[in-house]
Amino acid sequence: MADDETLRERFRRNASGIAATTVTGAWLAAMFLNVEWWLPLMLFGYIVIVPIVSMLFDEEEAESVHVESGSGSVRVERGEAAEREEATGDTADALERLRTRYANGDLTDEQFERKVDRLLETETPEDAAEWAERNRSADRERDAEHDR
Fold it and tell me: Which residues pair with 63 in a beta bridge?
């Protein structure tokens, strides 16, 4: 039963490719067999069948936003929805590491509070992008003032 489920999952994941390959094989066979309707078959396959299969079986990939704290740059990547759940776990891990560093005396009260606030501000990818944009704007303003 587990093998059947794996086969179904693989079919769902590759349904568009399977449909495109099947349409291509069918119209090529019709063309080589000198069947008159090979061109309408090709057009119908690529204009109707492949897009419908794609709409039915392809899942939208979630976007994930990564912020590099050193440079403040934002990178948007496509990934599975599971990455969002993993990010929540990463936040909890980061908070635990901060607590450990604070307990070991590696961070002062102010540093700890500032880092916790930043971590909580950037809990979701959208928050992280907003935080990075705010920091970039602040950096630009500081540079402009410094140039004066």
Answer: 78
